[in-house]
Design brief:
A 12-stranded antiparallel β-barrel has the order 3-6-7-8-9-10-12-13-16-17-18-19. About 0% of the residues lie in helices and about 55% in strands. It has one domain: Porin (Beta Barrel), CATH 2.40.160. With about 300 residues, the protein is mainly β.
């Protein structure tokens, strides 16, 4: 039941680890001094929302309806933990949800049937030697619409910031690959064995000019692997779940008046393993548009 927010995209923007996200994923942020209000401000708040044409998580269909996915994260820097190889550290708590829009058949939860998923999360993030980022997060998944029984996830994300490495090799402004590895261990999964989910990813990205504005262009490349998560069509489980790519554009529409505001949009292309009972066709395209604000 997890939204992948695209860890590599978040990891390449200061000390951030998903989430987004994508499909969406919570953005857990330890804000750097370059970000709005960063210098001398221990606390930060990030609020945002996305609208997606379908809700797919880890290569499995959870809602075919257009969904509204709001998010709120509160972060706190801990500069007193910095020293040696640790050059940034912080804690974060937050919530993420997925609400079905449009026509929704009535369910046992009445009007709450639209509220497919409501998550709470808390964790810590560190940046090491200015390049490596590590985050550990606890998630609690609940459904106000009784779409599933609640359970927990324990997540570890490791990312590497390779910005500047390709400066003299690839003629694109601010090009990076943003390699990332995401590990998620389910805990207390109702009626099934707890699964270990493994997601290696690269997110090639660069800055471009579009209509006089600066736009960040990103192309996520990731695969989903697991020991127990993917049920086979003919029984048993499958190790390989999906390949995902797409295109995400993001930018700041008012960098001077509202430096903390970011808008984003694009699409995800999911190519599932045909032997997995994922609810997807041979491929699935999900459109998305959203915004976030950090203070």
């Amino acid at each position: 039941m997890r939204h992948l927010l695209l860890p590599a995209l978040a990891l390449c923007q200061g000390l951030s680890v998903p989430a987004t996200a994508q499909e969406s994923e919570p953005t857990k942020t330890v804000r750097s001094e370059a970000e709005p209000g960063g210098a001398g401000n221990r606390f930060s708040i990030t609020a945002g929302a996305d609208v997606v044409t379908e809700y797919i998580s880890r290569g499995v269909m959870f809602a075919e309806e257009v969904s509204f996915q709001p998010q709120l994260t509160i972060s706190m820097d801990f500069p007193e933990l910095e020293g040696g190889i640790v050059d940034d550290a912080g804690l974060f708590v937050g919530s993420w949800g997925s609400i079905k829009l449009g026509s929704v058949p009535p369910g046992p939860a009445g009007r709450l049937t639209r509220f497919y998923e409501t998550d709470l999360y808390a964790g810590a993030a560190f940046r090491l030697s200015e390049r490596w980022t590590i985050s550990a997060t606890y998630f609690r998944y609940e459904s106000l619409g009784n779409s599933f029984e609640g359970y927990n996830d324990l997540e570890l994300v490791v990312g590497y910031d390779d910005s500047g490495v390709w400066q003299d090799i690839i003629p694109l402004d601010n090009f990076s690959l943003s390699p990332s590895l995401r590990l998620v261990q389910e805990a207390g999964r109702p009626g099934r064995s707890d699964a270990l989910y493994v997601q290696p990813s690269l997110t090639p990205s660069f800055d471009a000019r579009l209509g006089g504005a600066s736009v960040h262009v990103a192309v996520p490349l990731m695969i989903g692997l697991s020991d127990e998560y993917y049920d086979g069509l003919d029984g048993g489980t499958e190790t390989f779940g999906f390949f995902r790519t797409g295109l995400i554009l993001s930018g700041k529409p008012a960098p001077e008046k509202a430096p903390g505001l970011t808008v984003r949009g694009g699409f995800d292309l999911w190519v599932p393993n045909g032997d997995v009972a994922s609810g997807l066709d041979r491929y699935d395209v999900v459109g998305r548009i959203g915004l976030s604000w950090t203070r």
